[in-house]
Amino acid sequence: MNGFARTYWFAWGLLVLTAAFTGVASIKTAFFGGLVAAVIPTLLTRVFERVGLRFAPLIGAAMGVLWVFLVLWYKKLAGDPEDLVWAYWTLGLDLSIKAAGFAGTGLMAALVVRTTFTRAAMMGVLLAAAMTVLPYGFIAWVDYERAGPVEVVCLSSADVPVDQGPYHNPGAQVPTILPEEGQVLKKAMLVVPGVAGPEAIDTKDHRYWPLWRTTLVYPGNPGGELRRVILVLSPELKNKQHWSVPLSAKPDGISLIYLDEAKAQLWSSEGGTSSGVFLEVDAFFRSEGSGLVPDHLEVAVARHSPVGQFYAPQPAVTKPAAFFKNPALEKPLEKPRLVRPTFAPEAAPAK
Questions:
Q1: CA distance 337 to 298
Q2: Residue 168's pLDDT is what?
């Protein structure tokens, strides 16, 4: 029984330590989750002792991978949808942690009957650390390149007088063109200061202002560098459209995209285009008068892993797209003129 207890507590300690260092789960979750997961290598204690040093780590790693997929299958059947989505977001890290922890435990159990416990424990910890650092480093690098936050700013045209800008409701958060975004816009458009802040002018003298700005964050990797995307809406959009455009290959690059009726034109992208990060945009319209006007956009980011689909899809974010047709952005109605009352006697009607 001492051998089983030693294996159990060693496996539990490794799982808690690897989860704490990688940040894949909270200490509380790793603490209680490890209590259950450590049962698997404990039941294989005698197997580890018999197969020896060559195969014990391999069997332990295989059991770790199997355990992760069993937990995922269980969450599909009876788990909360949010837990299932989070499990997909952290699938790669879970695989590396469980495989490393179980492999280290297998090596320790195989060594402890051949040498001292201290030496066996040290070798098990070193193997688990190496197996955690290598895949975790690769996953962290892929996440840095592809799963960082994406900030989207949408520019739309408004039909307003030359000396005026679009109206925003009092208290509304008014986005503006940042200096670094202005430098990118100058490659394709004229950027000048205006009454409502910097504005962009195309070759057809259409004037554009930022309609909205939003940041799309992947929950599995909330940190990292910030990609930026500048969407320029064509004033001639009339039909429902869908665009899928690759973003900048640089994790902190800026992409300039013109959404036209025919296709999305990638005007500029720092560092080239990414092979795994795409902006998915859907435009919807509503009837107004004798034609259609843009109603709203749905924007989402699709991320693809180089070693399989480990990135769960995110729900699209809906934003208003019609700049000068949006009631929240229309010019304010003129206030009625106040007429001063008079108490003079009314003139007698002419005969």
A1: 42
A2: 62
pLDDT digits (tens, 9 = 90+) for 221-238: 777 889 999 999 888 887
Reported as a single tens digit per residue, the pLDDT across 166-206 is 766 555 677 888 999 999 999 899 998 887 788 898 888 88
Position 329 pLDDT exceeds 70: no
Q: Count CB atoms within 10 A of the CB of residue 125.
A: 17
According to the 3-state scheme, what is the secondary structure of the chain? CHHHHHHHHHHHHHHHHHHHHHCCCCHHHHHHHHHHHCHHHHHCHHHHHHHCCCCHHHHHHHHHHHHHHHHHHHHHHHCCHHHHHHHHHCHHHHHHHHHHHHHHHHHHHHHCCCCCHHHHHHHHHHHHHHHHHHHHHHHHHHHHHHCCCEEEEEEEECCCCCCCCCCCCCCCCCCCCCHHHHHHHCCCCEEECCCCCCEEECCCCCEEEEEEEEEECCCCCCCCCCEEEEEEECCCCCCCEEEEEEEECCCCCEEEEEECCCCEEEEEECCCEEEEEEEEEEEEEEEECCEEEEEEEEEEEEECECCECCCCCCCCEEEECCCCCCCCCCCCCCCCCCCCCCCCCCCCCCC
In this prediction, residues 41-46 reach a mean pLDDT of 88
